[in-house]
Amino acid sequence: MTSRGTKYWSSGSIPLIGPDMLGEIIAKASDISIVISEAGTVLSVLINPEHQGFGEVSNWEGRDIRDFLTPESIPKLEAQLERFMVEADDIRAIELNHSDSDTFGFPVRYTFQAIGPDGAILMLGRDLRPIAEMQQQLVKAQIALERDYEAQREYDTRFRVLMDVTNEAFVFVSQTSGRIVEINAEAAALFGGSIEDLRGASFAQEFEGRRKSEVVSGLVSIAISEGQPPLELTTRRARRSVLAKPTAFRAAGERMLIVRLSSSEDEEAVADDLTENLSALYQEGAEAIVFTDADGLVRSANESFLNLIDAPHLTRIKGRSLGDFFVRGAVDLKVLVENAKRVGQMRIYATKLASEYGSQIAVEISATWLDDQRNPAIVFVIRDTSRAEAVRKTKAAINDEGVRSVMELVGSASLKEIVSETNDVVEKMCIETAVELTRNNRVAAAEMLGLSRQSLYVKLRKYGLLNRNDS
Fold it and tell me: Distance between CA atoms of 325 and 351, rounded to whole angstroms?
């Protein structure tokens, strides 16, 4: 403030302010202004016209201000009034929390000023909600950081324990530097060194006759290709022949490889055991297993499948279409075969089998496309769910988008409208799934849903799916 301004305000030459302007000046100088008597009765309330977040406060006038304070704020107000009566010129601001049955609570910082000879007190208040909200955000951010830190520690501990107790040999390698980032004890034993010596060492230099670029690029090529055999290497220290099977991933922007190492001799023994175990599983397993050609014609089936369809022996069904044993026939088979060929596998497809004598059995089918051989095949794993369905509780699985759309209706629509919206969400999901599974085959989709073609077209048009599917 300039010297002229100081003199102006201290010389007693302040111009008189008209009563009609004083209220407006006080209102704009604070967020909320309250005039109370010495006993605490509210004489007047003014709200800043640019700050309308206090709700309806006109009903405060004529009532005790304590009626609009939270219990912990009442003693603070009474103590402040006592101090104000003794030393009105040296009084600090206090924070009070307002609350009543009509509006929500809000914190305000008040300064006290004596006005008039009748003992009236002017309380000039500043809304503290923006500060409180910022404090809450800071607290939430701090809590989130602490949770992230604890989660990071938990994940790191799990990783260390997993690397320590697993019987597999794993090495984490940086694609950029080609150095070992992390290694477990099993892998260190294959290399013939310790974890401390190998961590940070060049991965390629731990093998004989291989350059860094050759090893790393070879592993990356295997990782990004499908059906590639492992890379065979010989360790430099222990002179052991190992097979390296890599998987590429990215962590915090850095490209990494996790390399699974196994001894060549151990792999051969495991392969023999695996063949024997898989053969026993096929012959004696509880799940029905069927191998077909690319068109779904049965090549082989185990005893569990023969039991499901009441077939006396394999020769009775060999060469027949697997669709002959589905209630929906070729529709189910086409969905399974096309999706298995398109994405490699299809999981938990629910349908019904029809036995040789007409009885129906509820099943779940998983199909896998085996195309990495000269005679491609499809393997179907079929599980009997008829007993499970008798005791299984129905679980409605609605996607997050559908749940959110329904939740948003609560409070703005009636229960009848909300239920109608839920039905529309589920119906649309089912239609989209059927059309996708049948690859936009309207006839197959209608049969799968138990609808006529005309009804399906009506529903496609209703949900805006007709033009999208045609395109």
Answer: 11
- Identify whether 448 is part of a domain: yes
pLDDT tens readout for residues 234-256? 888 888 888 999 999 988 888 99
- Looking at the DSSP bridge assignments, the partners of residue 122 are 35, 113
Q: 289-293: which pairs have CB atoms within 8 A and are 24 or more residues apart?
A: 289/379, 289/380, 289/381, 289/382, 290/322, 290/379, 290/380, 290/382, 291/377, 291/378, 291/379, 291/380, 292/322, 292/377, 292/378, 292/379, 292/380, 293/375, 293/376, 293/377, 293/378
Statement to judge: residues 50 and 102 lie in one domain: yes
DSSP secondary structure string for all residues of 178-233? -BEEEE-HHHHHHHTS-HHHHTTSBSGGGBTT--HHHHHHHHHHHHHSSSPPPEEE
Based on the domain organization, do 316 and 340 belong to the same domain?
Answer: yes
Domain limit, last residue, from 359, 391, 423:
391
The residue-averaged pLDDT of 343-350 equals 86
Q: Would the CA dihedral through 165, 243, 223, 179 be positive or negative? A: positive
The rounded distance, in Å, linking the Cα atoms of 238 and 340 is 44
d(C-alpha 431, C-alpha 450), whole Å: 11
Range of the domain at 243: 166-269
Distance CA 244, CA 191 (A): 12
Q: Is the pLDDT of residue 3 over 80?
A: no
pTM to 2 decimal places: 0.38
Q: Which pLDDT tens digit goes with each residue over 157-190? A: 998 898 888 888 999 999 888 899 999 999 998 8
Report how far residue 298's alpha carbon sits from residue 320's, in angstroms, rounded to the nearest whole number. 6
| CB-CB contact of 309 with 320 (8 Å) | no
* Residue 412 belongs to some domain of the structure: yes
Sheet holding 180-183, edge to edge: 180-183, 169-174, 254-263, 241-251, 231-234
Mean pLDDT of all residues in the chain?
82
Phi-psi region of 149 (alpha: psi -120 to 50; beta: other; left: phi over 0): alpha
Sign of the C-alpha dihedral, residues 430, 432, 436, 440?
A: positive
Q: How far is CA 347 from the centre of its chain?
A: 22
Distance CA 79, CA 84 (A): 9
Number of domains in the chain: 4
Look up the CATH number of the domain holding residue 445: 1.10.10
Last residue within a domain, chosen from 241, 269, 297: 269
CATH number at residue 347: 3.30.450.20
